[in-house]
Amino acid sequence: MAGDDLVPSHITKLLGVAPTLAYAKGERYKRSPDGAQLIGRTGVWYRSTDAFESGHLEEHIQRLLDVIVSNPEKRIQLKRLLEENSLRAVMTVFWSGPAGAKPPEISNQIIETLVSIPVSIERDFDTDYQTPRHKHRASAS
After folding, report:
1. Mean pLDDT of 35-58
2. Residue 75 belongs to what H/E stretch?
């Protein structure tokens, strides 16, 4: 979640989980313990599922949804907090597969749930590079 008026502690209190990274606009933070000190250009509250060991993208998404929509009242409060503070909620999903693999689908039910909050979805799906089987020759005469 991001926005100039974001107060990270409000999001943490509402959702009842600690963020992976959070800072307010103008606040000093580090992306990693040994990283350079940065200053937030906008407020950010970020939660990662990297530690959750599953090879299924929808299980990672569901893990985050359980935090956001496990309680209907919490969902309403989150929606209100986003609107009242002009905050933007984005769920970025990453997937990487072998060359030629088909990226995973995100079910319509999950998309509809996210849109209703509103949370937009950014997909970062990538496959390994595959060397062409045949070399193309160019010739000129």
Report:
1. 87
2. helix 72-84
Domain annotation covers residue 32: yes
For residue 123, the enclosing domain spans: 2-127
In a domain, 91, yes or no: yes
β-partners of residue 88 are 2
The answer to whether 126 touches 95, Cβ cutoff 8 Å, is yes
Q: If pLDDT is split at 50, 70 and 90, which confidence band does 117 have? A: confident
> Is the dihedral angle over the CA atoms 48, 113, 24, 17 positive or is it negative?
negative
Into how many domains does the chain fold? 1
Q: What is the pTM of this model?
A: 0.75
- Flag whether 89 is in a domain: yes
